Structure formats: structure tokens, C-alpha cells
Amino acid sequence: MLEVRNLSKRYPGRGGIENIRFSVDRGEIVGFLGPNGAGKTTTMRMITGYLSPTEGEVRVDGQLMTEHSSKTKTQIGYLPESPPLYPEMTVEDYLRFVADLREVPVREQKHRIADVLERTGITGRERQLIRRLSKGYKQRLGLAQAILHRPDLLILDEPTTGLDPKQITEIRELIRELGEKHTVLLSTHILPEVEMICKRVLIIDRGRLVEDDRPERLARRLEQGSTLSLEVKGKPEAVQEKLLSISGVKRVDVTDSPSKERVKLLVTVQNETDLRERIFYTLAEEKMPILEMQRRDLSLEDVFLKLTTSEGGSQADA
Predict the structure, then answer these.
(1) Relative to the CA of 164, which of 60, 201, 263, 289 has its CA 20 to 30 Å away?
(2) Are 72 and 65 in contact (CB under 8 A)?
């Protein structure tokens, strides 16, 4: 559905986007992550045709953006970080205005507007002035305008900004529902949101794409082995020595020692080896009972921090 090939945007004397390549299949919901200034917004603006690339190309459903701009844009729904709203218009008038711009047939506009109002939770506020809406409702209205013309591809830049927890859950469910029939590229700083919605993650840093994979596969690759969190009854030095004697254990770190006869540890295990049963019997034979044992995998937040530089390391979105 979406193909981005060797996309670059260069600015004199400062950073930009360099050689971004990825594709998104129809029906995929893909998370697009990166620290502030990494180039997410610049990339999304080039995908939607709001910004021309220095090099490279964007294809939507096989159509080249630069050659079929008008037709291609009709297939895209875009919610920028700051929704494009007109504060002196009412909600209903604004959506009718957007429907006209998007060439939604007049006979379908009433039904389409009612549908997006209900899906985004704005029903009942049709006659309210946009300037009187809360930030959360403005964000909902921004999402409503993005899906009004039923696009094949949705580009969402921070869609849950300013929403309360209940609203975030509702919009998250809506995005998941939209992903059943649409292709979605979702940029957000809420990493648990990406883990819940997205099956695939793109990570950009300093204008370059540094990863493209499923979240769980990224975690496994970066871990270079799994980690177990243990709490054991026994002398810390003796427990650590016994664990290190087990084949397949790479490293043992003591994280806490509440007493001389009790210790908490992190045990790093080679590759995908499951040593939990062997660890249990080994320590049981030494009369070192395990009080707690949990497998500890890298979270998406851990992966993100490992792959990106500190915030502000790039000026790509400046």
C-alpha cells in the first residue's frame, strides 16, 4: 500500500532525512518512533505530499506521489500533530467544508459526517464552535476529518495527544478497528500504545531508519539472550557461584540483598535457552529455595532507548 524508497530531505547547514526506505502492506498498523528532532514529522509530511523530498520517491497503492499527486492524496487521511482546525467554525460546518474539499458526494455527506462524529465520540457537539472545544475534543475532530473521506492510508501524528485515559482507550480501539480495513502509520511517544496496537515498528534516529521489525523480535535480538529475575534464600556469594556453574548461564548480577540469607539477582541466559527448570533443581539440591522467579524481557521502551540517541540529537524536524 505504501512504498518509501531512498527518501531524503536535506537542509543547508543542518541535519535532515537521509535514505529512508520501508514499505507498509494493506491492513498493517505500523508504529513510527523516534526521539524529538529525529525526522518523524518531516518524513510524514513527505509521504503525504505536504513537503517535497530532495531525493527518493513515495508510492501509494503503486501510484507515484510526484506524478499523481491529486489522485494519490485522495487515498490518504492525515492527522498532523496540530489538527488543521478553523476555530470560528462549528464542528458540523467544518466537517462539511472538509467533505467538500475531499469531494465527498453531497448526497453522502450527512451520513458520512454522522458516522465520523459517532466513531470519534463527538456526537452532540455538532453546533459547538471549535474554539470552545477542549484540547481532547479538538484532537478527536482532527481524527474525524482524517477519516471522513474513507482513505486507504491513514497517517496519524500523535493522535492521542491531550486526551484523558478513557479517551485514549477509545481512540486506541478506533485505530485498531480502522486497521482492519485501512493501512495505518502511527507516530506516538506513548510506547505501551505501540505495543498494544502495532504489529511492526519503524525506529528513526538522526534522520536515518535504524530498525524495522516486530517489537518482540527487536527485544530478542537486542537482549542477546533472555533474563531471569530471581529471589533466593541463601548466602548471596554462594547462590551467585552456584548459578554461574550452570551451563548456559552467561551472567549473574546481584540487584539486592535484603539479608545475609536472602538475595535478589538477574540471571542472563544464552540465546533462547530456557534454564528455569535446571536452575530450580540445581538450587533445590543445594537447599537454596527459590522464593520468586520471573522471565524478564526487554520492553519496547528498553529497545527504543538502546537504538536512539538522547533527545534533541538531531535537528531534522526543526
Answers:
(1) 201
(2) yes
